[in-house]
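Bug: token stream looks shifted between consecutive jobs. Job 1:
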Amino acid sequence: MEPRVRPLPPEEWDGFIKANPYNVFATIARHPKLYRAWLGFGGALLDGTLPARDRELAILRTAHHSRSAYEWAHHARLGREAGLTELEIDSVRHPDALWPVEDRLVLQVADDLHYGGDLTDATWAALCDRYDEAGRIELVMLVAHYRMLALVLRTLRVAIEE
């Protein structure tokens, strides 16, 4: 499908996009004020307090639920960099896969938010046992952010880079 919003042409890229030449950035940059604010927020989530493995598991499960091929393509690569194996990345799509309890919790957070728009009391209690308050807030915001981004990417028809 053709993009509904074309990415900025390379001659209009800022330094960040030149260093990270992805359509997601070049497209959202068409709204400069939102782009700058979003880069700060997204950057805070990618460089937050959560372990990279947990972050990427949550993003991949959210990409799966949201049917976001763009997010999946980019975060499968980032997941491998965070230590996820190919089998684990493929297994994110299967709720019945055998996961260690720590990973199951992260996936359950994404599942609860996807299916119910909230966390069950049991999921929240498990989060309280595993993460501090900042980590709990961050994980919920991470999943919510990538759900929102999936909607933006799909609606604007942002193409995956070749």
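Job 2, same session, no restart:
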Amino acid sequence: MPTPAMKPGYFIAAGIIMVLLGILAWICAFQVSLASTIVLGVLLIAGGVMQLVQVFGHGPTAGMPRWLAALTGVLIIISGALLCLEPVQGAMLLTAFIAAMLIIGGLMRIYWAFQLRHIPGWWVGLLSGGVTLLVGVLLYATLPWAGLLFIGTLIAVELIMAGVSATYFGFTLRKVEQELTQVP
């Protein structure tokens, strides 16, 4: 049951705005890919700086040696700077990494499904692994072009799906509120 704090119009408006932003992101997938790569680079730089602050702000600690923790922070900063300075290559590298993870994940899911083939419905895991593997292979096969559009397209799809979900939820809330007010 909806609470008085939930306003259907807000969900509907937010959903419509997200769908429109998603469509814009899809149209500008290349620019969104580059912008998100740069944002990731900035976040890595900030994380690397925080790593260095943490390393030099504390005395010796158990676990990782100070020099290794400092080296890690420096490498994180360098990685972030490279993403910011070379966003096209960074987007391609990130896409290649995602493709590799999809390929590995698909292979692992296929292996898992075969290990469970004595259980009814095991083929669903096999199908899921096969689709994941196929997406990873196709993504890798279409590099470098996929690297220029993939991240932006993912963001666009997420915005559109979140917008559709929010809009639908808002209309459902409105319908429930109307039904509650009509009950004698």
